[in-house]
User: Which sequence fits this backbone?
C-alpha cells in the first residue's frame, strides 16, 4: 500500500512536470523571427526568402509586432495590379508560420497595420468608403470585421496612409489637400470618447511639400516623420521632433546618413519593447523596397 501511495505521488509529479513543460513549449517565443538584433547600423530584416521582395511584391509597410511578440503584421505592394495588402505571421511553439494574407485585408487598398500597446486591437489604413483608419478587434475566431475611426475631416481634405496613435487615443495622421498635391501632419484629439477635427501641427514640423507622420511616442513626447526637404538626402527622409513643455514642437532633426539614403526612407515604427526602429528603404543588394531595423538608441 505504501509503495502504491509513493507511486501515485510520483505519477502525479510527472503529470504536473509534463503539463508545465508543455505549457512552456506552447508559450516559447523566438523573438523577431530569430534575427540577430542590429546595432547603430541598419540591417536588412529578411529572415527568409518569404520576406524578401521579388518580381511579385515589395514591402510597403514595415513590421508591426504584437505587444506579446507572438505576431507580426506588414504591408505588401503587389506589382501585377498595384494593390496593397496586409500579411501576417504567428509564432507557435517557437516557430514562425509562413506569412499569409490577413483575413480582413480586402481587395481595396489596405496598408500600414499597427498595434498600439494592445494585443487585441490592430489598426490599419484603407481606402474603403467609410473612413481611412480602421480597427479590428480580436475575437474567438480571429479578428472582427473592420470598423472605421470616426475622425471628422476638414472640408476638401483626404486622409492619408501614414498615422500613429498615442496612449490617450490622440491620432496623428496625414491629410492631403483636395487635389492630392501636398499633405501635412495633423492631430485629432480624443476627448470624451470622440475624435475632434484634426489640427495642423504647424510650420515648425510641416514644410511646403509632403510630410508623413510615421510614429508618435505613446506619451506624445516626440514624433518621427518623413519629409522631402531641400536639405534632405534624396526622396523622403526620416526626422524627429520633440514636443516642448508648452505643447509646441522643436525644430526637426534628421536621423542622419546611417538611416537616410538617396532613396525613399519611410514607414518608421518602433518595436513594442522600444528597442528597435523599423523602416522601409532600398539599398545595395535589394531587389526593391525592403524592411530594415536599427537600434532605437539612434533616436536619443
Assistant:
Amino acid at each position: 500500500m505504501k509503495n502504491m501511495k509513493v507511486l501515485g505521488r510520483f505519477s502525479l509529479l510527472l503529470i504536473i512536470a509534463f503539463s508545465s513543460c508543455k505549457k512552456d513549449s506552447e508559450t516559447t517565443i523566438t523573438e523577431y523571427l530569430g534575427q540577430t538584433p542590429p546595432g547603430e547600423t541598419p540591417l536588412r530584416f529578411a529572415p527568409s526568402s518569404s520576406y524578401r521582395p521579388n518580381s511579385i511584391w515589395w514591402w510597403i509597410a514595415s513590421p508591426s509586432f504584437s505587444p506579446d511578440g507572438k505576431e507580426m503584421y506588414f504591408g505588401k505592394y503587389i506589382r501585377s495590379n498595384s494593390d496593397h495588402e496586409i500579411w501576417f505571421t504567428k509564432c507557435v511553439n517557437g516557430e514562425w508560420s509562413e506569412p499569409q494574407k490577413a483575413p480582413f485585408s480586402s481587395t481595396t487598398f489596405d496598408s500600414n497595420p499597427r498595434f498600439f500597446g494592445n494585443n487585441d486591437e490592430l489598426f490599419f489604413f484603407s481606402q474603403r468608403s467609410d473612413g481611412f483608419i480602421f480597427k479590428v478587434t480580436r475575437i474567438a475566431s480571429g479578428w472582427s470585421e473592420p470598423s472605421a475611426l470616426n475622425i471628422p475631416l476638414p472640408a476638401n481634405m483626404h486622409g492619408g496612409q501614414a498615422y500613429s496613435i498615442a496612449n490617450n487615443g490622440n491620432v496623428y495622421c496625414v491629410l492631403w489637400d483636395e487635389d492630392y498635391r501636398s499633405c501635412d501632419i495633423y492631430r485629432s484629439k480624443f476627448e470624451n470618447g470622440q475624435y475632434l477635427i484634426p489640427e495642423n501641427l504647424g510650420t515648425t514640423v510641416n514644410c511646403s511639400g509632403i510630410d508623413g507622420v510615421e510614429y508618435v511616442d505613446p506619451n506624445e513626447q516626440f514624433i518621427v516623420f518623413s519629409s522631402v526637404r531641400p536639405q534632405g538626402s534624396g526622396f523622403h527622409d526620416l526626422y524627429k521632433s520633440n514636443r516642448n513643455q508648452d505643447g509646441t514642437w522643436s525644430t526637426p532633426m534628421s536621423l542622419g546618413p546611417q538611416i537616410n539614403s538617396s532613396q525613399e526612407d519611410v514607414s518608421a515604427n518602433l518595436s513594442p519593447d522600444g528597442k528597435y526602429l523599423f523602416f522601409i528603404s532600398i539599398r545595395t543588394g535589394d531587389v526593391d523596397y525592403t524592411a530594415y531595423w536599427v537600434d532605437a538608441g539612434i533616436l536619443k
In short: The chain has one domain: 42-299. The longest strand covers residues 83-92. The radius of gyration is 22 Å. Residues 21 and 27 are 10 Å apart (CA to CA).
